[in-house]
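re: that chain from earlier
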Amino acid sequence: MSDVRKAFAKINLALYITDKLPNGYHSIETIFAPIAWHDTLTFSPAPTIELTCSLSSLPTDSNNLCVRAAKLLQETYTVQTGIHIHLEKSIPFGAGLGGGSSDAATVLLYLNRYWQLNLPIDKLAELALKLGADVPYFLSTNALAFAEGIGEKLTDLHCTFPYSLVVVFPNEMVSTVWAYKNLRLPFPRKAPNCLSALKSLIETGDKEFLNVFENDFEPLVESAFPIVKSLKETLLERGAIKAMMSGSGSAVFGIFEDDVRAEACRDSISNRFPTSYTPRGFAMTKPDFVSS
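^ sequence. v structure.
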């Protein structure tokens, strides 16, 4: 008997890099938003931890975050049984959409119940942070969240984004390590108040507040991958009221006033690039195995 779970991706509605820390990490301010693009994970009983994947190019050993998440939970709590995980990969990697982090969080959530550990979210979040700075986001929130620190300090905003989204992957993978290494900004620096802008946007509907949403990685990535800038222009030409890059790239998303315009844009692009459409006000369904 097997269980199937969806692991949803995210975009960064805004992303500001505010400082470089002594440990080599960077502090950020960002707004995470869930999107409908998802991977599918199928869990089956097994004596050891095993992973298969629909993409032969992805590792299925401890270099994969799914395996690392399972082993971390198993070793931390001395679990004697294993699990077989089949990963049907849909979210592009090297896209800035958090696909691997979402997969890892889904593994933690599922095994927490399957292995009858029943750990609260804050305990899972401590483990999740060892796997990646944005893994904790995928554990408990189903809507927008404001993130600080290295991305682990989360504030659930208890709201959804009031626009439709089209996300496009330009078939170029961007290394997050490369992006941070080549980022040239005067640290420390103060970020615009994207949280206040989001609140005003939702309360007033004034699209001018979208101008506060920026991504500090965009100039760097656009210079190395011109297709990113070209895709932003394409989305604007097809009716987006704003177009941005997500995370450290390379995925680009367009913000549309309604689902009709978004779907029309998706249909016009999807034959050339992997593309996903997220309806207005989308929120992930919280898994039934999340403990409070």
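Confidence is low (pLDDT under 50) at residues 288-292.
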